[in-house]
Amino acid sequence: MPQIKSRRKHIRQTEKRTLRNRRLKQEIAKSTRAVLEAARSDAEEEIQEAISRAYKAIDKAGQAGVFHARRGDRKKSLLARQVAELQAE
């Protein structure tokens, strides 16, 4: 445990950020799985709702600094391609 007060505060901040980042990443993973499941079932309305929730989670994580905004754009693009591939089958 650090002796310097500012370092102790830094540890507390890091723990908070880690929990927030983990929660947001889990939300992205969960919503992405929901999108792919909806795409496999061919329910158009479900797919649109799930994509909307996934995009919102990805954008929120990008704004919070969990990852770079362009990485979020890549994730959204990849998700859209995966949905298109599943619908084409």
Question: What can you tell me about this protein's structure?
Answer:
With 89 residues, this protein is mainly α. The protein has one domain: Methane Monooxygenase Hydroxylase, Chain G, domain 1, CATH 1.20.58.110. It contains three helices and no strands. Helix 2 (44-64) packs antiparallel against helix 3 (69-88). The protein is elongated. The N and C termini lie far apart (56 Å). The model has no long low-confidence stretch (mean pLDDT 95).
Condensed summary:
The protein contains three helices and no strands.
Comma- or semicolon-separated keywords:
89 residues; mainly alpha; Methane Monooxygenase Hydroxylase, Chain G, domain 1; elongated
- What proportion of the residues is helical, as a percent range? over 70%
If you consult CATH, what is the topology?
Answer: Methane Monooxygenase Hydroxylase, Chain G, domain 1
Based on secondary structure, the structural category is: mainly alpha
Radius of gyration: 17 Å
Name of the CATH homologous superfamily? Ribosomal protein S20
Shape: elongated
- Uncertain stretches of 5 or more adjacent residues: none
Supply the number of structural domains.
1
Sheet with the most strands, sense and barrel status: none
SSE arrangement:
Layout (H helix, E strand, L loop, with lengths): L4 H37 L2 H21 L4 H20 L1
